[in-house]
Amino acid sequence: MPRNVLITGGSSGVGLATVTRFARNGDNVWFTYHSRRDVAESVASDLRTTDGARIRAFEFRQGERDSHDALLAALPGPVDVLVNNAAVGTRSIDRYIQDPRDRDEAFLRINSIGPLWLIRRLLPGMLERGYGKIVNICSVGGGVAQFPGFDVVDGMSKAALAYLTRHLAAETAHSPVDVMAVCPGAVDTPMLRESTLDRLAPQARLDFEANLPKGRLIRPEEIAELVWWLCGNGSGVLHGAVVDASMGLGVRPGLLAEHSAESDRVCGGRPGGR
């Protein structure tokens, strides 16, 4: 039977790849976007045409109470699978918030409190119906390891999301709902390109990628495939797991410090992007 899947931040990067993967499986996929309604509606239209899946896009400002209420009121049915993917990155947040205190608050509100609010509203229904999957998309930076020189509050927001995953898993240990987190490394997404890759000279970018585990960036589709599998029937043994999906960066975070001084200077984002 098709499941009702809600994926936040689904119009680009890992979110788009995840929306596409669930649509291919025949699930009903509802995804959110923050801006660019035209892009989101184009994504939904293309997937409906290509896969025959029931896809809908909803505008959503994560961490804003009114927007949370509006989204949940607009959803056409109960949610069986929740993928908390929407997040803000260093460069995207710097475009519209200048005050450092407001910036810190926004990081935590969007990346940590927003997912918490969604879970609080949707988890009771999953428990009542006897089925549910929750996957939180964190980052290797904060969720698994620490990277000096990267944005501390960004890392804090991901550490909080990893803790939320473990805490909820402990509370639902005897329930039919599975809660897990995925911590990607350097994924080739618009967020990583904006924060890091586009700021590198051509040779510096080649050096950056060569020094990553396996000498390459992670593809969004690789993370999407993992998320899809975690929401399947065989993933129950990973209830409560915070999965290091960084291709080895989490166990050797010093790789990002093993670059030239120029590469270190311009890497002002976080080692993971959606």
Explain what you see:
It is a single chain. The protein has one domain: NAD(P)-binding Rossmann-like Domain (Rossmann fold), CATH 3.40.50. The protein has helices at 13-24, 37-51, 65-74, 90-94, 100-129, 140-143, 152-171, 190-195, 202-211, 220-230, 261-266, and strands at residues 4-7, 28-33, 55-59, 81-84, 132-137, 177-184, 242-245. The radius of gyration is 18 Å and the shape is globular. Strand 2, helix 2 and strand 3 (55-59) form a beta-alpha-beta unit. It has 274 residues and is an alpha/beta fold. Helix 1 (13-24) packs parallel to helix 2, helix 1 (13-24) crosses helix 10 (220-230) and helix 5 runs parallel beside helix 7 (152-171). Helix content is 47%, strand content 14%.
